[in-house]
Amino acid sequence: MSHIHDFTHIIVRDATENNLEMKPELKEHLPEDSVVISTLLHDVCKADIYKEAIKKRQNASGRWEEYQGYDVDYNNFPLGHGEKSVIVLLRMGLNLTDDEIMAIRWHMSAWDLSLQSPEAKGNYNAAKERCPLCSLVRAADNLSANLLERK
Ligand SMILES: [Fe+2]
């Protein structure tokens, strides 16, 4: 595993342990298996979207050069983000719990809400209210994306 995953694991483990120490009643909502499954597999939806592509960039002297990069192509299974991860994992035979499904589905929080959809907002808020794992996975993903994977 990469250093990012190792560090994310430490952050998630510490956050889980701190939450459970402060609020022991959360223990039944944050089983270790669910934390591991949700934090490691929430972005399975990305597994088939990156395609190698030649990109161009300006080097230090201002000359254009080509480099090997990636484009994103959603055509293979255009189903969204968190909801796609859930469906792919279920199709693979993983027996996800309700909390794991909600945490993976809503890990993008408000960034993944359909515009002006009261139903999506209601579902997101209800999931967040009844499933502490949603907040934990969202926090871990946010830390990873904004701190650890920052360029
Ligand atoms: Fe994601």
In brief:
The chain is mostly helical and 151 residues long. It has six helices and two strands, in the order H-H-E-E-H-H-H-H. The protein has one domain.
Keywords:
binds fe (ii) ion, globular, 151 residues, mainly alpha, single chain
Which ligands occur here? Answer: fe (ii) ion
Please tell me how large the radius of gyration is.
18 Å
Helix content: 40-55%
Tell me the total number of β-strands: 2
Q: Return the average pLDDT rounded to an integer.
A: 87
Q: Could you list the spans in which at least 5 consecutive residues all have pLDDT below 50?
A: none
Please trace the helix and strand order, writing H or E for each element: HHEEHHHH
N→C terminal distance: 20 Å
How many structural units, i.e. domains?
A: 1
Structural class: mainly alpha
Polypeptide structure, described:
The protein has 151 residues and is mainly alpha-helical. The chain has one domain. The chain is built from 6 helices and 2 strands. Strands 1-2 form a two-stranded antiparallel ribbon. α2 runs parallel beside α4, α4 packs parallel to α6 and α5 packs across α6. The model has no long low-confidence stretch (mean pLDDT 87). Fe (ii) ion binds next to loops.
